[in-house]
Amino acid sequence: MKLILVAGGNVETGWLTEQLKRQYARGAVKLLGVDAGVLQIEQTGYIPDQVIGDFDSVSESDRLRILDRYKEKRVLNPVKDDTDMEAALHLAVAMRPEEILILGGIGSRMDHTMTNIRLLAIPDQAGIPAVILDPHNRIRRIESGTMIRKEEQYGKYISLMAVSEEVRGLTLKGFKYSLTDGTLPAETSLGISNEIIDDQGMISFTGGRVLLLETKD
Fold first, then answer.
1. Helix (H, G, I), strand (E, B) or coil at 171
2. Cα-flanking dihedrals φ and ψ of residue 161, to 5°?
3. Handedness of CA 120, 123, 129, 133 (dihedral sign)
4. Could you tell me if 162 and 185 are in contact, meaning their C-beta atoms sit under 8 angstroms apart?
5. 112-120: long-range contacts at Cβ-Cβ below 8 A with a sequence spacing of 24 or more?
6. Which tens digit of pLDDT belongs to each residue from 56-102?
7. What is the pTM of this model?
């Protein structure tokens, strides 16, 4: 079962509708609306299986309607230490899906955007593959030995960031900027805007944690 979380952010209704249609056609899906993401889902005609949030980012009328409409819900206190997305990811991990797809979660609030990317650590530590997807970005943590087919990449650019103090033994094959047994510190732009030039790009490393961003303008 794939678990799809729809959050607020820069998500157009047409794009979201197409993504949901594609995912439902591929197999079993459970759809979770996170706070304002519930409204995003409703605009597509799909219905979330469950909703979660404090719903302080929607109007009072929408909040009351959501609480009345959805029986499967987890209502959070707006005065809390974690965000709605963090609570949603803990809930998602507890459901033990095969993978987690987050649609949205990237927007004009950079504090939320950066936090949501860092929160990929939650499913990663649970051994569950997770991806953040919006019209311009596909973001995930990866293991050593990750291969990306050029024909399947999400946009033109491939960027790597260390989400540990550093990444050691980093080797890139099939890329415009290749690398053999290199070190990628956390505080550098070294891994930004690479491109696959062969049929596929291979990423391997011996230590550390890597964030992979596939991006397009």
1. strand
2. -130, 140
3. negative
4. yes
5. 112/83, 112/85, 113/9, 115/83, 115/85, 115/86, 116/7, 116/85, 117/211, 118/163, 119/83, 119/85, 119/86, 119/89, 120/211
6. 989 999 999 999 999 999 999 998 889 999 999 999 999 999 999 99
7. 0.94
